[in-house]
Amino acid sequence: MAQLRHDHSEFVQRQAQVIVIGPEDAQAFAAYWQQHDLPFIGLPDPKASVLKLYGQEVNLFKLGRMPAQVIVDKAGVARFVHYGHSMSDIPENAEVLSLLDQLNQ
User: Residue 21: how many CB atoms within 10 A of its CB?
Assistant: First the structure.
């Protein structure tokens, strides 16, 4: 989430809304967001409802949910999906911002 915070203004300039979805309950999510003063939306998903909609993988041997990045356009269509195999397998912001530039053309 640090990389998302770092370039948050770049996402905003591209009319993109960053939403981070995690397995914690609402109270834990709210506390984390307040403690770290995050500039984007945090959506608790303790029952994995959103996870199932987007096909995000759960791997108990790797401590839970695998990372997934999805770009959904204004019409609700998923235009880019990346399913990571570990927490280090996350696209760089530059790649995601470039995809947003292409979609906004």
Answer: 20
Domain hosting residue 94, numbered range: 2-99
104 occurs within a structural domain = no
Question: Does 105 reside within a domain?
Answer: no
pLDDT in tens, 23-73: 888 998 899 989 999 999 888 888 888 877 877 766 556 556 677 888 888
Q: Does a structural domain hold residue 68?
A: yes
Please give the model's pTM, rounded to 2 decimal places. 0.79
CA atoms within 13 A on the CB side of 14: 21
Q: 39 to each of 8, 28, 97, how far by Cα in Å? A: 7, 17, 17
| All residues at 6 or more sequence positions from 30 whose CB lies less than 8 Å from its CB, including other chains | 42
Structural tokens at position 66: 């695998």
